[in-house]
Amino acid sequence: MDVLSLCPLRALGFVWQPRAGTCAQTVVVKATFRLVPGEAVLAEAQDAPGEEERRWDEGPSSSVRVPSDGAPYKARADVVLVGHAYAPGKQPSRSWMARLVVGELDKSIEVWCDRGVRWQDGQLLEGPRVTKVPLRWERAAGGPETNNPVGMRFDAAPDRYGMVPIPNLQPPGMFVASRADTFAPACFGPIAPEWPRVSARLGRLGPGWNGRPFPEGFDYGTFQVAPPDQQVAEIRANERIVLENLHPEHARLVTSLPGLRPRAVVDRATGEREEVGLVADTLWIDTDRGVCCVVWRGRIGLRHAAEAGRIAVWVEGMPLVEVGREVRDRDIEEDDGGATMTLVAPLEKKGEPALPFVPGLSRLSEPERRELLQALSRWAGRESGDGSETVFAPMARPAGKALPFEGAREVAEDDDGDMAKTLPPMGRPAMMAAPFVLPSVPMSPPVPVIEELADREEAPGPLPAPPPMIGPLATAEMVQAKLEEKAGEAKETASAGEKEAAPVEVEEEGVDLSIEETAAIAAEIAEGKVERATVLEARELSERAWKKNVARWDEAMEEEQGRGRNALRGAYDAAYVERVEGFRGVITVEEYARILVGMERGRVEGVLDAMGIQRAALMPIVRVWARKVARDGNLAVKSMRAVRDMRAD
Predict the structure, then answer these.
(1) Given phi > 0 = left and psi -120 to 50 = alpha, else beta, which region is 74?
(2) Of the residues 399, 501, 516, 588, which has the maximum number of CB atoms within 10 A of its CB?
(3) What does the domain layout of the chain look like in residue ranges?
């Protein structure tokens, strides 16, 4: 199908086979924002979605700078960051902390100048102080036959000066005095598809999956590009972002995404129209350019790989702007009001399709293009008063169910007309933003897309054949009548509301939990042995009071960290780990070593599960133990020995 962007954002589409005999089309929409204090703004130059990743050194052996946008599906959202870490105040420094906060993600990396161990006597030497350090996996721990094959080995042979370099990027709180003091790889950047962590999950499908059916039970986590501790449940439209020592101009940049949401509508050649549910599943930050990119992804089912149709993309409340080829006033019929519109052809490599089965540049004639724009304007928007542009108005969120229709049991006809396939309920994932619905325009039911289970951790379900067209599309008269009906209902509701008594204001609930109590309750909720509501009820807490308390301490810890202190964070972590140990027993040195080695090998989630430790406890445990080994030299030696033993297993 052709993909047309009617807004500044760039888009592409590609076809793939979830399994033999089924076809789906994924739609990718990408927006680029400038990172400025307060709220990010849409950049004048928009980055195009890329089918292949781009490397730092433009070579296959280097780490990834820009990940591919060609994933057909992601179970979780990825947050990655590339560029440089900048010394505070642009003053040459030997080391500093770089911190990334996106929603619930809070990750810090200790950044160091060049340093190394002299092979002859084992003395640790430091190079000159620096003002910035590249944030690349090449500057982290690792090496061949490790989970970070481009990283720096602690047991590498000395260079011609007799020095063995130490990685510039390390986890916070690690004490390094000799070659024996090793640590796990630490970086904010994306993972390359050929690295062990990913290639092992691809299995027999191999890297060249395009156009090939996915095998039964395929692990869609393969397409996650972020390190495990940078994969989040969702990227909200107004997500808060904090960068500390990660911006060339601002030592601490606090901003948020501007709440922009693209929409996409499919017009099939058979006359059916449906909306594609777009989900933001990738946030890529470039500290050097001071920008970030958000990628939305959605899927539709196809009758066959070459099914004809159009997918139009636009942004609510945003006028059609000049990005590609302008349709001049004299090229538009008089009843359009002289509107100036823009058509953007599908993105593709010159002379070949964007991905398998995707046709080249749209071959729509001018009348067909004008017809499409007019239909979208009448269907989803309104014309401005002076007729200079068409603006798509925001669509109100209805009280009913969003697309795909939740809980519905549908029956699809197969190619022979037999009613043979019963579809399971199409549940909307709890952690992702709900797709907008179109309350004012009757539409054909959507072609069933890949089944999205409630937790989004399992593979997408099968793609049954699309249903036949069930009726004609709405006309302009039908839309106008429906709008008038809605306006009348709204007026009656407003009149009735004026007669009602003013609502009684509820007094804000007081909260006085200590930070240790807050951490213990959070750990108990995350453990999941007791229902969340039961945990709060046992402490006579309402959901509202609990959230207010959490927000209060989060703000306090963030404010303290902004002043270079972490006493509150330390108290929170200690109480959290103590509560976790109350569930499963004290964490030993050997178990801590298993966690570190699991992080090195990209298997930390499995290690935590095997030890009966909740995954949310990973970073509190690491921070608590980092403080322990920093204070206790004997414990540091024991932990290093345990790590070496674990690596040898």
Answers:
(1) beta
(2) 516
(3) 2-83+192-422, 84-134+137-170, 515-648
